[in-house]
Amino acid sequence: MLLTEIDHVAIAVRDLEAAIQYYRDAFGAEVHHREIVESDGVEEALIKVADSYIQLTCATHDESPIAKSIAKRGEGLHHIGYRVDNCAEALAAMVAAGATPIDKAPRPGSRGTTVAFVHPKGSFGTLIELVEE
User: Fold this and answer.
1) Could you give the residue ranges of the DSSP H alpha helices within 2-133?
2) What is the pTM of this model?
3) Which of 11, 133, 15 is CA-nearest to residue 79?
4) What's the whole-number average pLDDT of the chain?
5) Rounded distance between C-alpha atoms, residue 132 and residue 85, angstroms
6) Is the Cβ–Cβ distance between 117 and 103 less than 8 Å?
7) Confidence check: pLDDT of 17 > 90
8) How many CA atoms lie within 13 A of 106 on its CB side?
9) If you average pLDDT over residues 86-102, what whole number do you get?
C-alpha cells in the first residue's frame, strides 16, 4: 500500500480571511500553518484535524490554477492530498495504472514537502496531490 494517510483536503476559496473566520466560528478551529506558495500562485491556511489538514487555499493572481478553478467551478472542494512515503514511486505507480500526471516529476511543495499532482482524467474525476513529508 503506497498511501499512508490523507494529508489534506483542499478547499478553494475567494477570500481566505473569511474562510478562516468561518472555520474558527463554526468549529473553533485555528490555523496551524500558513504559507504563500509562489510557484503555484496560492496562499494556503492549514487547519489541523488529527494527523491531517483542511487546506483553505486562495489565488494570489488571476492565472493561478486556483483562480481558474474558481472561475470555472466556483468555490469548494479542489483536490485531495494523499500522504506517501515516496512521491516518485507513487507517481510512477499511478501512471502505470493509467493516471495522467500534471507534474512529470515530484517537486517542492508547502511545509517542505515533496509533491506531484495527477489530473482528474484517469483518476475518476478527482484531482490528486501526492505528498511526501
Assistant:
1) 16-27, 65-73, 87-96
2) 0.94
3) 11
4) 96
5) 6
6) yes
7) yes
8) 21
9) 97
- List Cα–Cα distances, 83 to 3, 90, 111, in angstroms: 6, 10, 13
**CATH for 3-132 (3.40.50.300, 3.10.180.10, 3.40.50.150, 3.40.190.10):** 3.10.180.10
Instruction: State the cell numbers at 54.
Output: 483542511
**Hey, what's the cell of 80?**
485531495
| Cβ–Cβ under 8 Å, residues 98 and 91 | no
Banded pLDDT at 122 (limits 50, 70, 90): confident
76: left (phi over 0), alpha (psi -120 to 50) or beta: left
Cell of 100: 495522467
Q: Where are the domains of the chain?
A: 3-132
Which letter does DSSP use for residue 106 in this model? Answer: -
CB 107 within 8 A of CB 91: no
Q: Which tens digits make up the pLDDT trace of 18-77? A: 999 999 999 999 999 999 999 999 999 999 999 999 999 999 999 999 999 999 999 999
Compute the C-alpha angle 54/117/53, nearest 5°: 10
